[in-house]
Amino acid sequence: MTDSNSKAINLGLAPSFGFGDRLGSATPGHLAALKRTGGHIRGIFAQQSIREMARTDRQPDQVMTAASEALVAAGFDEPWGSDADHLKTPEDVERMAEAKFTFFTIDPSDQVDQKADNYSAEEVEAKYEAQPWVDQYLGKTIQVPGGPEIVFDELTVKRAAVKYGKAIQHSVELAAVIKAAAEKRSQDHEIEISVDETDQPTTLAEHYIIADQLIQAKMNLVSLAPRFVGEMEKGVDYIGDLDVLEKSLADHAAIAEHLGPYKLSLHSGSDKISMYPAFARATKGRFHVKTAGTSYLEALRVIARHDERLFRDIVTFSRDRYDTDKATYHVHATLDSAPPEDQVESLEELEREYLEHWSEVPAGKGFTKAGRQILHCTFGSVVTDPKLGPAFFACLEAHPDTYTEILDDHFGRHLEALHAGLS
Ligand SMILES: O=C(O)[C@@H](O)[C@@H](O)[C@H](O)C(=O)CO
């Protein structure tokens, strides 16, 4: 264990930003951007989901070592965090705890009944299985201080039980595994629950019940990621009405403040520039933002700048893989969203179609081109391909300064937008 590694600690309720790095070489650029916030936002530099590691063929220890060594090399001596992301099983927990991750994100989405919002009252009744907590809410109306009034009528509570009953139970069980795994190793631990990867937004009543139950179970809950209104797709800016979102965020934040406090967490946070000020404002700085795929996309910009042929080959390969690899990711791009590379003569135009140019994006907005999603979902296939993978890493390693410069600029824009909502 390196000195800096020992500083991957609990960050508690401090505003935090997750810099998922699927390649192991992004930390210098992430750090350069973070330094511009003047220490107001803490960095989570070692962050990886089980799904990402499966796709890239990496191990938790490699993720932790890449981040901590880069931080040591940069002489970074401030607190930083690590995120064992999207954990679904006790085995996932053990792997990440062994690599000394401290922030554990439980993802119970497999236990969520994704169709529950569409059930009729009769269907809810038919599927309802008594949960030990139902009587705590049934028939009550709760006024959240500074926030919404939540009416827990019978249908609302029973629908929540159908939708999230098993997910709550699973989360409580996994939290106990996390606690034991951390204690066995004399390590810190803190917990996030993410229910963002569901089809329908998390209602305020559902948020209340989920968080209240997890807190009653005495887990060290520091962060919760509801499924917010609108669309949080991978690789592009927020899609939806920002005023509606801000009102909803304020209501969710009031619940988090009242029951916790805990942070509201934004998954698929990459490129959501237009909503960051509202997110920071509504949460009054009690937030966590999680990004990952965008650092891979910016690595492809390095490839485009230094090896046009390789970039073109990656575009073609990614188009072949997209329909398979997009499984489990929330995206809307189709192969028609961007042209095949051999139909685009200029590299600048090809980059515009698949990555976009910051110089062409209006201030306060993020990228919107669906072509980015074709490259976003196919990262694992590219980096593990026997031909493209080595060429990709060789080009990236040959141009570390370009990557750092691009990430500094890219995340500088993210963090400035968040910061705007803090002041
Ligand atoms: O791809 C993954 O598995 C993760 O990077 C993400 O889902 C992560 O949780 C995230 O939201 C990053 O934007």
UniProtKB/TrEMBL annotation:
<dbReference type="InterPro" id="IPR032586">
    <property type="entry name" value="UxaE"/>
</dbReference>
<feature type="active site" description="Proton donor">
    <location>
        <position position="192"/>
    </location>
</feature>
<comment type="similarity">
    <text>Belongs to the UxaE family.</text>
</comment>
<comment type="function">
    <text>Catalyzes the epimerization of D-tagaturonate (D-TagA) to D-fructuronate (D-FruA).</text>
</comment>
<feature type="binding site">
    <location>
        <position position="86"/>
    </location>
    <ligand>
        <name>a divalent metal cation</name>
    </ligand>
</feature>
<dbReference type="Pfam" id="PF16257">
    <property type="entry name" value="UxaE"/>
</dbReference>
<dbReference type="GO" id="GO:0016856">
    <property type="term" value="F:racemase and epimerase activity, acting on hydroxy acids and derivatives"/>
</dbReference>
<feature type="binding site">
    <location>
        <position position="267"/>
    </location>
    <ligand>
        <name>a divalent metal cation</name>
    </ligand>
</feature>
<keyword id="KW-0413">Isomerase</keyword>
<protein>
    <recommendedName>
        <fullName>Tagaturonate/fructuronate epimerase</fullName>
        <ecNumber>5.1.2.7</ecNumber>
    </recommendedName>
</protein>
<feature type="active site" description="Proton acceptor">
    <location>
        <position position="85"/>
    </location>
</feature>
<keyword id="KW-0479">Metal-binding</keyword>
<feature type="binding site">
    <location>
        <position position="234"/>
    </location>
    <ligand>
        <name>a divalent metal cation</name>
    </ligand>
</feature>
<dbReference type="GO" id="GO:0046872">
    <property type="term" value="F:metal ion binding"/>
</dbReference>
